[in-house]
Every structure is written in structure tokens, then in C-alpha cells.
Design goal:
This protein has 425 residues and is mainly beta. It is globular, with a radius of gyration of 21 Å.
């Protein structure tokens, strides 16, 4: 009898562990399953230290250089990188897609997608890479984008379904914006120094469904690095894309600009967020503004549909995040803030130290910010400022978090880390 009890108990443990694995939330694209940095995972660590190994499940060296954020789906990690083919200041690069085991960090496969040639005129910003856009995993396929060098679809075993190099433009400082997958299409912002347009690719074959020029309203500098966001407004699906001097909501099926708001900015990086009937966008450089826009208008709604605006320490690079009724943000120079999302009223503004490019996330009751210096700052959300912990991995980090399996995945300049409570391993 005792032996049967032991067997049943062991089976119960196995079922529990299997169920826990099945319940793990995937992080399939930039800013996760909601596309806005929110995770339902629980049991995440708030403290870690790469030097002592505290709550570091593993770290794995990633070949080449890339600032695309990792994505995690069904126990596998997918990311992109650019591996130099030779020495010197401007060598050729092999633009590659990697798959790693999420439990161990071991490489499963590594395939080349495109070539970036030294003869290309493109030069990247010191904070950029030739592999900065984040992949998307959906329905057994991976979609990768390397800016003007190419876009591709792969099966989960690393075999290619299609490739295209039709989205041609001259990038300023390299490429950075990730695609948005909307139903059966990929929507991609292509804002170079020579031309600015939004393109829609068929997910099945990579063919261009539509391509529309962006109105930059005579901007002196016209480039941007934007990741679009799909939203539903009164039963109509639209995709919000921000470029130099304007942001628009585009009809997903036709590319028609439904509404447009003019602004004074360029080199736009942050992805919008959508809550409480408002789209929140940052206008990036020179001085970034935060606009709260009602996306239910038609035509140029600059004077009628901007609910509120702030110019106070708005981020150039990190995306904002909304938790409950509040919008949180960290500026590139390390000033975090909390505002009422509906009114724009400021609750607090505090310096958290360091420089920031990665977008914050919310998970398990905490906000996580990751600095360029490799420091993870954990903040308790609310209308009073409270730092829970400060942590270090001791390496530069520009990529944003991924969250799955009760763990944080952080990409540094040379490594990929799985950060997880020691007792959960």
C-alpha cells in the first residue's frame, strides 16, 4: 500500500511539472504576447547577480553581435545575430537566425538568412547592430527582418519558407524597427533617409500586399526605427505607425491612412501602447513628446484628437508601459516617471541611474527596467515611487526582456541569460 502511495505521489509530481510546463506563457515577439510588455508569468525573481550566480540558471555565449530581443515559444528561444566574415572596421556580415533550448541554453540550430556586404553604404549607429529587429514566432513559423537586407519566414526546424529583399531603402544608422504580425500579414515601417513608407507582406509567400508612402510634412530629418502596433477601434482593425513628423492609423487590408496626427520629431524608436481608448506615442528626437491620441478620427486629427501631451523627460528609445490606470516610462538618461494614463497628471518622477534603451516590462506584480550598463531595476507599480531591488549582470544590455517559464531572458553584448529563482530549478 505504501508503495502505491509513493507511485501515485510521484505521478502527481510529474503531472504537476508537466502541467506547469504547459501553462508557461510564450513570449513570441517584441514586447511579448500583448505586444505591450505585459506578462502573466509568476514566481519571477526580483534579485539576481551574475558575479555570484544568484538566480542565474544559465548563461550562453551568442555568436556575433545583435540587439534583437529574444523570443521564447514552447521551450525554445529564437533570436538573430550578425556574424562578421573577416576583420576590419567594416567587414561583410552573415545575418543569422538562432534557436536555443530554453532549459539549458544549448544551441539547437543556427542558419544564415542574408548577407550584409562591406560594399553597402549603410553605416550603423554605435548603439545599433545589423541584427536589431526582433523575430516573431506564430503558428509554427518564424518571421525575421534585417531591415533593407531582407525579410524571411522559417519553419521551426530552421528551414526557409520564403525570403524577400524587396523592401529597399537607405537606412540612417542601420535598421531597428521590428515587424508587426496582423492576421495573415506582416506590417513593416521602412523609414530611411531617402524614402519613407509602410509595407504589408503576405505571411504565406512574402509578396507585397500593399505599400504606402508616409507623409513626413517636410521634415528635415525623415528616418525612423519604429515597430507598428495593431489595435481594434470600433470593430475596425488598424495598425499604428509613427515616423518623422507624423503618426497614422492605417487600415490593415488596404493601407489607407485612417487618421493622422502631426508632431515635431524623427528617429522614432518606441513602440506605441494602447489602453483606455487612447494610443500613446513618443516622438523621439530632438526633444521627445508623449502624445495621448484618440484613434477614432478621420483625416488630419492633430487639433481634435490629442487628449493630452507632455514634454517632460519623455523617452527617445524605451517604449512606455501601462499597468492599470497608470503609464510608466523611463527616459534614455535614466529618469523614470508615472502618470495617470487618462489625464496625463504626473504622480512621480525619479532618477533610477544609468542610461536606457530597452523597453520595460510588467510581470508578477513588478516593473522591470534594464539599463544599458547591465543593471536591472525592479520597481513596485503605484502612485508612490518604490524601488524593490537593483541587480547587475555586469555587461552592456540594449535588448528588451523576454519572459517565459517563470524566468527572465536577458541578452547582453555577448551572452544570453536565463534569470530564475534558484529553488525553481
Amino acid at each position: 500500500m505504501k508503495r502505491n502511495v509513493t507511485i501515485f505521489a510521484s505521478c502527481g509530481i510529474i503531472v504537476f511539472l508537466t502541467s506547469a510546463a504547459l501553462r508557461a506563457e510564450n513570449w513570441p515577439q517584441f514586447r511579448g504576447p500583448t505586444r505591450q510588455g505585459i506578462s502573466s508569468e509568476v514566481g519571477l525573481p526580483v534579485e539576481w547577480d551574475a558575479e555570484t550566480g544568484e538566480n542565474i540558471a544559465w548563461k550562453q555565449t551568442v555568436p556575433g553581435k545583435g540587439w534583437s530581443s529574444p523570443v521564447v515559444v514552447n521551450g525554445r528561444i529564437y533570436l538573430t545575430t550578425a556574424v562578421a566574415d573577416g576583420d576590419g572596421d567594416n567587414p561583410d556580415h552573415s545575418l543569422r537566425v538562432l534557436c536555443l533550448d530554453a532549459k539549458s541554453g544549448e544551441e539547437i540550430w543556427n542558419v544564415g538568412a542574408f548577407q550584409r556586404l562591406a560594399a553597402d553604404s549603410e553605416r550603423i549607429h554605435p548603439k545599433n547592430s545589423h541584427a536589431s529587429p526582433t523575430p516573431i514566432v506564430d503558428a509554427g513559423q518564424i518571421f525575421v527582418h534585417f531591415g533593407t537586407h531582407g525579410t524571411a519566414c522559417l519553419n521551426l526546424d530552421g528551414t526557409f519558407v520564403w525570403k524577400t529583399t524587396e523592401l529597399v531603402y537607405e537606412p540612417q544608422h542601420g535598421s531597428g524597427g521590428s515587424p508587426a504580425l496582423v492576421d495573415d500579414v506582416l506590417v513593416i515601417s521602412c523609414d530611411g533617409r531617402d524614402k519613407q513608407y509602410i509595407a504589408c507582406l503576405d505571411r504565406n509567400d512574402g509578396e507585397i500586399r500593399w505599400k504606402v508612402n508616409r507623409d513626413t510634412f517636410d521634415a528635415d530629418k525623415k528616418f525612423a526605427f519604429h515597430t507598428p502596433l495593431a489595435i481594434d477601434v470600433n470593430g475596425r482593425k488598424q495598425v499604428v505607425s509613427t515616423g518623422a513628423n507624423s503618426v497614422s492609423g492605417f487600415d490593415v487590408q488596404t493601407g489607407e491612412a485612417i487618421w493622422t496626427v502631426r508632431h515635431d520629431g524623427y528617429s522614432v524608436v518606441p513602440r506605441p501602447v494602447f489602453a483606455h481608448g487612447l494610443v500613446f506615442i513618443c516622438t523621439s528626437f530632438q526633444r521627445s513628446s508623449l502624445l495621448a491620441i484618440r484613434p477614432d478620427g478621420q483625416g488630419d486629427v492633430t487639433e481634435t484628437h490629442v487628449a493630452w501631451k507632455s514634454n517632460d523627460t519623455v523617452s527617445h528609445s524605451p517604449s512606455p508601459i501601462i499597468v492599470g490606470d497608470n503609464l510608466y516610462m523611463v527616459s534614455d538618461r535614466g529618469v523614470a516617471s508615472c502618470r495617470d494614463a487618462r489625464s496625463g497628471d504626473l504622480h512621480w518622477k525619479k532618477r533610477v541611474n544609468g542610461s536606457y534603451s530597452a523597453s520595460p516590462i510588467f510581470a508578477d506584480g513588478h516593473l522591470y527596467f534594464q539599463s544599458e550598463q547591465g543593471d536591472g531595476v525592479v520597481i513596485k507599480p503605484g502612485e508612490t515611487f518604490e524601488v524593490v531591488a537593483r541587480n547587475s549582470i555586469g555587461e552592456p544590455t540594449l535588448a528588451s526582456y523576454a519572459v517565459s517559464e517563470g524566468a527572465l531572458f536577458v541578452r547582453s553584448e555577448n551572452q544570453l541569460y536565463r534569470i530564475q529563482q534558484d529553488e525553481r530549478r
